[in-house]
Amino acid sequence: MSIYLSSKKDFMNFAIMIFCFFFIFSCLTVTDIKAQTLLSEKIVWKPAEYVDPGKEVKVIPFKIKGPGVLQINSTIEPFFCVKRPMRYDGVFGIPGIWNYDWKLVKAKHLYDGKPREHYNVATPCYLEGKIKKATFFDEFEIPAKQYSGEFVITSPMSCSFNSCDRRGATFWAEVKFIPGSTTPSGEGEKESYLPGGPEVNGTSWIVNNHPVPWVFRSDGTVEAPNLWKGTWRRTNEGYWVNIGNGADVFLVKFSPDGKSFTAYKNGAVYRRGVFKSSSPDIQSSEPPQQKTVYFEKPTYKGYRLDICRLWGAECGKEAADAFCRIKGFTHSESWEIDHDIGHIYPTIIISSEQICNQSFCDGFKFIKCA
Asked: In 112-145, which ranges are E strands?
């Protein structure tokens, strides 16, 4: 094939066209090379009764080094959550994600093509059985640090206190990391966090008549002094509170007059608070340094605490330390195992809140925190 150029102008136009072609091609090629696929999974879950919860979880470790952009896509059809006693979870997530200093720059969650607000529900899990397909896209800007963590996929189980059944669904997820990039992809809608108002500027609140108040501070922290510490992030819905590395997350909505609040977990009322005092200069209390506290048969979320921090891993001191940190201490000083109690007193994994209700499940007789 030959190309005939009749003039100098034709030659220049042809040269510019060739340059643009190779420039665009090189840009696309570089993007493909730079993007790292951290996860690509498709799972077809078939319904089953009396499944082992420990075998319904898939954990995929990851390591990334910023700066860059992390893009998370997933779908599930039909839409199900993981239903455990007293709580719901999504089937896919990164435990403790809000404890990373990642910035969420894009978020688009659709249920049969419509946002959650269209359905007027407090939590998407109330849409179970009504939605044929749910799609999720989130994009994070990653700072110039190295991170390691886990992607956790859990089948859409429905668990009672004694057993778990798996629901049938098809799940797909893809996670990509683009190192060096700080430009959002353009997909999704920006979801920025709002600045806190006067209701979180050193305010103290009496919650459910408990003697220890909740204290909200303008630096994004919240605590019940010497009991627990957490962080808050403000969205259009209210203030999302995260306690104990993602172990407890709930939504706080303050009244228009700023004199009270209601906390919601899984769409239900969780706590109610009444304004006590305001002191913008109030300082964060330190955990007890010399004090030790003895917890006999320690419980968490209404269950006996399991001896493992993860399912079948990091057992003993790691789980005891995590429990003590949630209680506002620095570490566990001593502890003792209570063997084979799960069939009588189900135990709970402190990191994932999975329930172990078999005879081989172990708890603690006591934990001494310091």
From this structure: 134-142
CA–CA separation, 254 vs 274, rounded Å?
A: 10
Residue 46 dihedral angles phi and psi, to the nearest 5°:
-100, 140
For residue 47, is the peptide bond before it cis, meaning its omega torsion is within 30 degrees of 0?
no
Q: What is the pTM of this model?
A: 0.48
Beta bridge partners of 73: 137, 174
Q: Distances in Å between the alpha carbon of 87 and those of 151, 233, 240, 285?
A: 20, 21, 16, 30
What is the sign of the dihedral through the CA atoms of 313, 314, 316 and 320? negative
List 335's β-bridge partners, or say none. Answer: 367
Residues 331, 370 contacting (CB under 8 angstroms): yes
277, β-bridge pairs: 204
- For 244-285, what is each residue's pLDDT tens digit? 544 567 889 998 888 999 998 766 788 999 998 887 544 444
Among 73, 254, 84, 236, CA closest to 159: 84
Rounded CA-CA distance 145/358 in Å is 41
